[in-house]
């Protein structure tokens, strides 16, 4: 997994609440058996008009959003279906960082498995940032995961909280399974301590 | 201080706790389906890893399966996913209830039905409605595909300890009001993210009055208000449900399990981070009017006006929803016409749901211009329903009677609601485009869906039943 230590990029703001994973990647695109190639279907129903042409009103399609790698979005982002395809699509499109007042739990966890950094920010700060962004006061942001700070290009700086374990994984691009297998002995000991009826009867 | 039900199950599954708060949790049952697993198996193969405990892993296919003729998968990519699961199960030694199995069905219907789901277990699946299994007093939650791979490889999962919430459901339901109305009413009152970060335990005087299937309906939709999981303490109803099922423990093992399950409940002095009380005695049948499960109201209600919203954000959300749903503020819910009825999904496609819907449909006809479909949750549900003659009641009334699968719950298979048309659906999500691009979904109970099929619009099922059913 590609680590993320410090990231500087263009910000696109979506002033929407409760964006669910069905919106992020509609189910007709879930049938692939690979992990890549989902970016072109990101936000499909919003992004394209019925005739297949880009919807000029959609946030990501505006000229000033071209090449955005940081998404600023309102409450409860990623709710609904557990599909990790939502994260794969955001990553494949080019996003590395998402800032929102809150995220749905499964989506939040999925981000860390794929080198996408979700940052929870206070609602007040969200309002301030989205409004000043809409007024065109700033466009880019630098996020420093090591320091747990971020700064906009018009000089607003703030720090953020993140679970130390998850931070460590992202900073080093670590594979969860490899880490877990270091605890092989503990797992085996645990299994030996359980009564067999806990297990499925074949 | 006492422990909650959740804490007892959690504590019994801790393999390792790290100083930073991460816990390696042992997983007792891993359910797998065709959509969220291919990349996980591919990851194992790529790294040369095995499935650690194939006997704790159980797979089926449900999302992509066509419900008219399941074998006739015309969509090449869907077929590829189904074949990939078959091949992965063969290669990694995982049990599969495939298209030929008498046990195939929606993953959250077959787990309980086969006795795989049991009190006290930790259960995961690459599917958010895994919360269903919490109705047995299991800790059950949905995971992403990377986590699916992790569980396949290690039978464990890293988790940070969630907060706890107790929701006391108190009172008795009026006739015609169901578990589905309870969960829809609860989410309408508290919103779609009040459970985020919490494992919820449902308690209160209502629970002992509910069958296992009704309990599953409530736990199923816990994820719709953001809860990590929903749980209910096992009782005699739970034990009676599990007993004798295909994979349930037998003999001495059974006795030992039952003894343990009887102790499996929150201690009286256990403390929850959040405590909520929800009274159900005057709850009406519910109908959603919007594009998230919290945007709903009682059948006597009206479509809300964004002007009356409590906040700017809420007003915006209402406006967006009404635009998508093509509804005007003030419209009576009972005046909204529907063109489709879908009785199915892991929320409401069990035998009791079908019995309830059939009791309303019996001797009546589906309204002109309405296409109504019943999709049993599993092969076993279908077989049972046919043994009871329910399929004939539906067919005579003008319903279609299908083969098991997720069907129009998410329209990943040929069952899609056309753009601009309205569906009374017993499923769990009314998100934009969920049942098909531009489709307008109204979530209801099986009783309300059946009543809407007959009337052609939403109608209070209590009025329909009080008229008496004329055969
Ligand atoms: S029935 Fe619907 S909610 Fe349930 S598992 Fe299938 S797609 Fe998901």
Explain what you see.
The complex is a heterodimer of chains A (202) and B (471). With 202 residues, chain A is α/β, with parallel strands linked by helices. In chain A, 31% of the residues lie in helices and 16% in strands. Chain A has helices at residues 21-24, 44-47, 85-93, 105-112, 123-134, 164-172, 176-181, 184-193, and strands at residues 6-14, 70-73, 97-100, 117-120, 140-144, 149-152, 157-159. In chain A, α3 (85-93) links the parallel β2 and β3. The radius of gyration of chain A is 19 Å and the shape is globular. In chain A, 40% of the residues are buried. The mean pLDDT of chain A is 92. The model of chain B has no long low-confidence stretch (mean pLDDT 95). In chain B, strands 5-4-3-6-7 form a five-stranded parallel beta sheet. The radius of gyration of chain B is 22 Å and the shape is globular. Chain B has 15 helices and 19 strands. The longest helix of chain B is centred in the N-terminal third of the chain and has 17 residues, at 76-92. Chain B folds into two domains: 5-275, Aconitase, domain 3; 286-463, Aconitase, domain 3. The chains are: A alpha/beta (202), B alpha/beta (471). At the A-B interface, α4, α6, α7 and α8 of A face β2, α2, α3, α5 and β8 of B. The complex binds iron/sulfur cluster.
């Amino acid at each position: 997994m590609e680590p993320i230590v410090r990231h500087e990029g263009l910000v696109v703001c979506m002033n929407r609440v409760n964006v669910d994973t069905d919106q992020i990647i509609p189910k007709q695109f879930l049938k692939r058996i690979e992990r890549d190639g989902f970016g072109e279907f990101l936000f499909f129903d919003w992004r394209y008009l019925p005739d297949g042409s880009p919807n000029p009103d959609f946030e990501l399609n505006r000229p000033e959003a071209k090449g955005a790698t940081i998404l600023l979005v309102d409450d409860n982002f990623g709710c609904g279906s557990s599909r990790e395809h939502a994260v794969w699509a955001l990553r494949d499109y080019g996003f590395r960082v998402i800032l929102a007042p809150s995220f749905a739990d499964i989506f939040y966890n999925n981000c860390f498995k794929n080198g996408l950094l979700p940052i929870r920010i206070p609602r007040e700060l969200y309002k301030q940032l989205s409004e000043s962004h809409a007024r065109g006061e700033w466009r880019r942001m630098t996020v420093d995961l090591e320091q747990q700070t971020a700064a906009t290009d018009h000089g607003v700086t703030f720090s953020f909280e993140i679970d130390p374990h998850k931070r460590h994984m992202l900073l080093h691009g670590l594979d969860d399974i490899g880490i877990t297998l270091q605890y092989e002995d503990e797992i085996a000991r645990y299994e030996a301590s359980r009564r067999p009826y806990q297990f499925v009867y074949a | 201080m006492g422990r909650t039900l959740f804490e007892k199950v959690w504590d019994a599954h801790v393999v390792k706790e790290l100083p930073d708060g991460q816990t390696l949790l042992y997983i007792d049952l891993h359910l797998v389906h065709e959509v969220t697993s291919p990349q996980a198996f591919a990851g194992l193969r790529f790294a040369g890893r095995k499935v650690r405990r194939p006997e704790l892993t159980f797979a089926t296919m449900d999302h992509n399966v066509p419900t008219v003729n399941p074998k006739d998968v015309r969509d090449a990519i869907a077929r590829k996913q189904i074949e990939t699961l078959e091949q992965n199960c063969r290669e990694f030694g995982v049990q599969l209830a495939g298209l030929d199995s008498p046990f195939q069905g929606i993953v959250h219907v077959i787990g309980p039905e086969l006795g795989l789901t049991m009190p006290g277990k930790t259960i995961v699946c690459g599917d958010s409605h895994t919360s269903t299994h919490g109705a047995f007093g299991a800790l059950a939650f949905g995971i992403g595909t990377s986590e699916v791979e992790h569980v396949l490889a290690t039978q464990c999962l890293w988790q940070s300890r969630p907060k706890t919430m107790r929701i006391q459901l108190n009172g008795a339901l009026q006739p015609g009001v169901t578990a589905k109305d309870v969960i829809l009413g609860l989410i309408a009152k508290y919103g779609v993210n009040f459970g985020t970060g919490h494992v919820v335990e449902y308690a209160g005087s209502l629970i002992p009055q509910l069958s296992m299937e009704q309990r599953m309906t409530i736990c199923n939709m816990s994820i719709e208000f953001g809860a990590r999981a929903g749980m209910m303490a096992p009782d005699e109803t739970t034990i009676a449900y599990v007993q004798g099922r295909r994979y349930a423990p037998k003999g001495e093992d059974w006795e030992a399990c039952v003894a343990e399950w009887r102790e499996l409940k929150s201690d009286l002095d256990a403390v929850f981070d959040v405590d909520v009380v929800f009274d159900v005695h005057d709850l009406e049948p519910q109908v959603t009017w919007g594009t998230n499960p919290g945007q709903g109201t009682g059948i006597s209600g009206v479509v809300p006006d964004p002007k009356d919203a409590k906040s700017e954000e809420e007003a915006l959300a209402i406006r967006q929803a009404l635009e998508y749903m093509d509804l005007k503020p003030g419209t009576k819910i009972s005046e909204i016409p529907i063109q489709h009825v879908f009785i199915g999904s892991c929320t409401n496609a069990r035998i009791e749901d079908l019995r309830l819907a059939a009791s309303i449909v019996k001797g009546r006809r589906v309204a002109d211009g309405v296409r109504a479909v019943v999709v049993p949750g599993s092969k076993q549900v279908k077989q049972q329903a046919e043994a009871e003659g329910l399929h004939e009641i539906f067919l005579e009334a003008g319903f279609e009677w299908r083969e098991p699968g997720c069907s129009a719950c998410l329209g990943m298979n040929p069952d899609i609601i056309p753009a601009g048309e309205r569906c009374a659906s017993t499923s769990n999500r009314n998100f934009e485009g969920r049942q098909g691009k531009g489709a307008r979904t109204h979530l209801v109970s099986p009783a309300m869906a059946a009543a809407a099929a007959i009337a052609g619009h939403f109608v209070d099922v209590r009025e329909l039943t009080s008229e008496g059913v004329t055969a």
